[in-house]
Amino acid sequence: MTEPLATRQRSLRAAMDALDRPWPPPPSVGVYAEERELFRLLQNMLEELLIHKPDDPIQYMIDHLKQNNDDAPRICVLGPPASGKTTAAVWLCKHLDAIRISQETLLLQERLALTKEAKAYKERKEKIPNALWANLIRERLSNVDCIKQGWILEGFPENQEQAWMLQSSGIIPRHVVVLYAPDTVLIERSSGKRLDPLTEEVYHTTFDWPSDPLVQQRLVKPEDLSEQEMSRKLLEYHRNFPGIFQLYQKVLKSINADQPSVDVLSQVLTYVQTRHRSAAPFTPRILFCGPPGSGKSLQAALIAQKYGVVNICCGQLLKEAVADKTKLGELVKPYIDNGYPVPDNLVMKILAKRLNALDCVTNGWVLSGFPRDIEQGEQLQKSHIIPNRYHTVFRPAPTPEIQARLRQNPKDKEENIEKRVEIYCRNVKELEEFYEDAFYVNADQDPHIIFEFIESCVIRPLPSKKIKNPVINKDDKN
């Protein structure tokens, strides 16, 4: 019997409508882009093109990729006189294998074309023009060692005009460290400052005197260290700093230099090794782990409500499949009705189908209740379902309060609770090793405090060169 024309037309329209709908990209696409930081790579190349405006953009991008220096340090260390800029810059260079650039080192670079001109001003005791300093720095930073290893720019820019000149030349620091201390402390430091002309390291007669007698003999007193001259320099610094702060405030961190040098250097290194928040498109894929009663469901619901991600509880997802009478739901139903664990292969099929749906791919998701052991974690990974935020709500041994909360649910019998807790404790160690980058959260506190901590972990940038996969592991309560 021939199908009616109207029916064929409706079928054709339905097929055409299906073609017009957006097709969700495979989950592996997002994972690949994050792992290889494609957005940051393209963003860096676009910035370089707009700054340098090469005649041949394609060749310029090829050369840029060959240099492979996007992670090279680009740091400015600023601060008033005697704040410890040289000490911090020298120390950073040793730890990061970068090139230190200061006014003193620039004047020693005989091979630079502008060095003689700058020295002439110095010999005449005239102030070297801002434009000359900027051009000298640009010439030095164009050398191969600075391009490959990165650079630490010490004490420059000194004012907003110099900062603008650097930016117009494409010299844009990724981190700006500003050391500060009370003027009285700086004046006291200045009077005891000594310089090793061989290593360019700075010492102090009171706070940091070298133990090596040979170094002691080499030390010299820097010029212009009278209290009057120091006060003049401090006044000039305080007058110029607001303009610099305005320009660099998004990448600038102020560090108190009036504390032990070890603490100062540690804070400086920690900051310059952090990565600023990326403008890359970010689709949250959040995983909550934790024992029964630790509050995974509540925290997942709060995250989903605030950020519009899809909240997926594995147990609830299985029940929905049974209620909807899907083919997989019919296979799962006997296990749920009889209280048996659902086989991992069935769980993975239902879970993968849901996580690959358009709303999850577009808006992101927060998953709880799976995986419960390392085998399930490996199956997730093989299915290209890779979280980019893991949170472990941590209490290795659940407290009596957790178990009391569990018993409040009439569906939970005491023996079932004890069995679930025992299964969790048996598998938690391997899961922690598998998700080694998890954020651990003490869930035995107010739910809103827990949420604030989890939220800070979800939205903050990861401080590593490669995208890592953090997990939320909950061991206490929501």
Describe what is shown at a glance:
By secondary structure, this protein is α/β, with parallel strands linked by helices. The protein has 23 helices and 13 strands. The longest helix has 22 residues, at 227-248.
From the N-terminal CA to the C-terminal CA, the straight-line distance is: 62 Å
Query: Radius of gyration from the CA trace?
Result: 30 Å
The helix/strand class is alpha/beta
Q: What portion of residues is helical? A: 40-55%
Global mean pLDDT: 79
Which of globular, elongated, flat, extended, rod-shaped describes the shape? elongated
The number of helical runs is: 23
The major beta sheet can be summarized as: 6 strands, parallel
The proportion of residues in beta strands is 5-15%
The tally of beta strands, per DSSP, is: 13
Low-pLDDT runs: 393-398, 461-472, 474-478
Keywords for this structure?
single chain; alpha/beta; 23 helices; 478 residues; disordered C terminus; six-stranded parallel sheet
Textual characterization of the structure:
The chain has 478 residues and is an alpha/beta fold. 53% of the residues lie in helices and 11% in strands. The strands form 3 sheets. Strands 8, 9, 10, 11, 12 and 13 form a 6-stranded parallel β-sheet that branches. α8 packs across α10 and α15 (296-307) packs across α23 (447-459). The N and C termini lie far apart (62 Å). Residues 393-398, 461-472 and 474-478 have low confidence and may be disordered.
Topology overview:
Layout: H1 5-20, H2 27-35, H3 38-52, H4 57-67, E1 74-78, H5 85-96, E2 99-101, H6 103-107, H7 115-123, H8 130-141, H9 144-149, E3 151-154, H10 160-168, E4 175-180, H11 183-191, E5 193-195, E6 202-204, H12 213-218, H13 227-248, E7 252-256, H14 261-272, E8 285-289, H15 296-307, E9 310-313, H16 314-323, H17 327-337, H18 344-355, H19 358-363, E10 365-368, H20 374-382, E11 389-393, H21 400-407, H22 414-434, E12 439-441, H23 447-459, E13 472-474
Parallel strand pairs: 1-3, 1-4, 2-3, 4-7, 8-10, 8-11, 8-13, 9-10, 11-12, 12-13
Antiparallel strand pairs: 5-6
Helix pairs in contact: 8-10, 11-13, 15-23, 16-17
